[in-house]
Design a protein that fits this description.
The chain has 13 helices and twelve strands. By secondary structure, the chain is α/β, with parallel strands linked by helices. The protein is globular, with a radius of gyration of 20 Å. The longest helix has 22 residues, at about 240-260. Helix 9 packs parallel to helix 13 (about 335-345). This is ABC transporter substrate-binding protein.
């Protein structure tokens, strides 16, 4: 591979110290490289490397490999984090180029008024496995019964948001519970150990909780918009080569889902099951149900998606979790949109 340009070398050097701090926060973030060298987003001699975040497990990396779309003409370095909030921390620290998250983490990452990132694409996806669960044997069977109870939740994520909204629907306020912010793995451990009465989580954490006998007492399925955001650092957006690479990567992810839906659901379920440690039939059922609820796909940013996140930001303002009024359009950008539309159509 040719020597990186000066700007990239400086950025990578500057990020090393920040990366060490962020990885400590990320509860053991892991990295792996994929793809082969190519142009600056599309030919020979590329020095482009995209450092991309993932949550739960490296789903996108595995998906691209399954669909035979991982031979990218640039390098992709995938890093695993406990949540989208930790990915945004890494982006802000210069240790990650691209983050994937729900609508919530960018709100908190921008709360100081100095975001150094932009939301550049929206992934429409299902909102299943976004739940408040009570442990096996618990007498708690509804959200209303959480008054005075200790409830774990993953701070600054979808879990934070739908827990707040579900409490409101049950006639409770945030102050009516003892809210305990916990990472997903610690939340499941606390739930099983009896130190919390319920836990608001998502994805693998909810799957694991159910495997251990937990039951659902509230769901964020119909509360959440189904918009999952792809966010890039300002440095990344400042490079034409990296913009080309990112648009191509997102289009490949979109095409990979089409590949799975084209009669390969069961084979892909085996990949998911191996990563999430669940039966293949269960993984298949969850994928099928998720696609039935909302077909997964990548889209450019839009006014509707921006307005959706503004509603989320306003809710956290009402909750008092965000101390300043935020206009989310300030950290959304259509700078990738034209190239992404072209890549999606190719």
């Amino acid at each position: 591979m040719s020597r990186p340009p000066a700007r990239s070398r400086f950025r990578r050097t500057r990020a090393r110290t920040a990366l060490a701090a962020v990885v400590a926060l990320a509860a053991g973030a892991l990295s792996a490289c994929g793809g082969s060298a190519g142009a600056d987003g599309g030919g020979k001699g590329s020095s482009v490397t995209l450092r991309v975040g993932a949550t739960g497990w490296k789903k996108e990396e595995a998906l691209l490999k399954f669909a035979h779309l991982d031979d990218t003409p640039y390098q992709v370095q995938w890093s695993l984090f406990q949540g989208g909030d930790r990915q945004l921390e890494a982006v802000r620290a210069g240790a990650l180029d691209v983050a994937s998250s729900s609508e919530i983490p960018p709100v908190f990452a921008a709360a100081d008024g100095k975001p150094n990132f932009k939301v550049v694409a929206v992934e429409r996806g299902n909102t299943l496995n976004q739940e408040v669960v009570a442990p096996k044997g618990s007498a708690v069977s509804s959200m209303a019964q959480l008054r005075g109870k200790k409830v774990g939740y993953v701070k600054n994520t979808t879990a934070h948001y739908f827990l707040y909204e579900l409490l409101k629907r049950a006639g409770l306020g945030w102050d009516d519970i003892e809210a305990a912010p916990l990472d997903p793995d610690k939340g499941i451990a606390a739930l099983n150990g009896g130190s919390i009465d319920a836990f608001a989580g998502y994805g693998n954490a909810v799957i694991t909780a159910h495997q251990r006998g937990a039951r659902t007492i509230g769901s964020g399925k119909d509360i959440l918009s189904g918009n999952f955001l792809w966010t890039a650092s300002d440095d990344t957006l400042g490079s034409a080569a990296e913009r080309r690479a990112l648009a191509d990567l997102l289009a490949r992810i979109d095409k990979a889902y089409d590949y799975v839906r084209d009669g390969r659901q069961k084979e892909y379920a085996k990949v998911v099951a191996a990563a999430t440690h669940q039966p293949v039939d269960q993984a298949l059922e969850e994928f099928t149900a998720g696609e039935a609820q909302r077909r997964t796909g990548i889209r450019p940013v839009s006014a509707g998606a921006t307005a959706s996140e503004q509603r989320v930001a306003d809710a956290f303002g009402d909750l008092g979790a965000v101390k300043r009024e935020l206009t989310v359009s300030g950290f959304w950008s259509d700078r990738l949109s034209a190239r992404l539309r072209k890549a999606l159509a190719s």
